[in-house]
Fold:
Amino acid sequence: MIIKNALVFTLDRGFVPGDVAVADGRFADSHAFDPADTDILDAGGDYLIPGLVDVHFHGCSGYDFSDGTKEAIHAIGAYEAKCGITSICPASMTLPEETLLTVCETAAAYRRESEPLPLSRLCGIHLEGPFIAGSKKGAQNPDYIRNADASMFGRLQDAAQGLVRLITVAPEAPAAMDFIRRLHGEVHISLGHTDCDYDTAAEAFALGADHVTHFFNAMPPFTHRAPGLIGAAFDAEHVMPELICDGIHIAPSAVRVAFALFGPERLILISDSMRAAGMSDGSYTLGGLPVKVTGNLATLEDGTIAGSVTNLMDCMRTAVSMGLPLADAVRCASYNPAKSIGVSDVCGSIKPGKYADCVLLSKKDLSTQAVILKGALLK
Structure:
């Protein structure tokens, strides 16, 4: 396949006019252009961006990753691929160990099997809990919160056959610092659902934590005398914070502040979507708790925001509408999340050798014109 006449996203130069070659499901060098190739997609001057990578979302299309079934993962993968999110690292919830073991085992079995197109690639698992703080539980079920437990993590990782790439931990919890010290080389550790102060967060980052779960949400606010996790993340240059740009979780000004603080090299756009994404208003569940969805707002019975109902592509568009440059928003929804969980060698940018996952967006209104997954045209 040859994709011609596109404004191609690049990490170092933004959008540049050019053509892209695809061979055997991967992006190819320029010398791979074959004049006799009749499989040509004319981009007509539109934007060609990498397939997006969501490292924090729970579900969509009526299904949740924590359902623990192959049917759920399949349905989630189909919806995400249609939206242009071609690599996924879905998140579990704070649940009993037995349930999490089933989720991990099912994901590993699903990954072992061939994934027929057009499904997004399952590239990891994000364990959002159960090692979190009850005071900042958000929409997590407090009945299943536990102290950080390296042995339990080992059982879950074994069940997942190494597929767990990210885990959210509250660093102030008993045994959390030892957990971070022991495991930071085996899994990316994200600080979140936490009431920690600046010093505790800074210590956790110094021990190897390198990620922040849904920045601003479920953590103490930043103040001039108590900068907390937000200030500690800014000071630790290796740390990459997540940001939910659905228009509900974070005010536009706060989104712009976050980008000014961290820059496009560090921020990660996520959706944090739950099973109601792509569905109509109504009653749903998240982590076993009842959720009411009205428009773009999902809430528990007490009014707590319960994830989002917006997919990552629409979150990226919303970020642009809030004033972020398109090239920065694209990077934060593709390359940065891939880098943050260690899969940027195969996805997240348009470079020779990587999977040929890309999306053609209208230059006029950023609407999706085509989705290409491993060189196959889906839309």
About this structure: The CA atoms of residues 131 and 148 lie 5 Å apart. The longest strand covers residues 14-23. The chain has ten helices and 22 strands. The two ends are 15 Å apart (CA to CA).
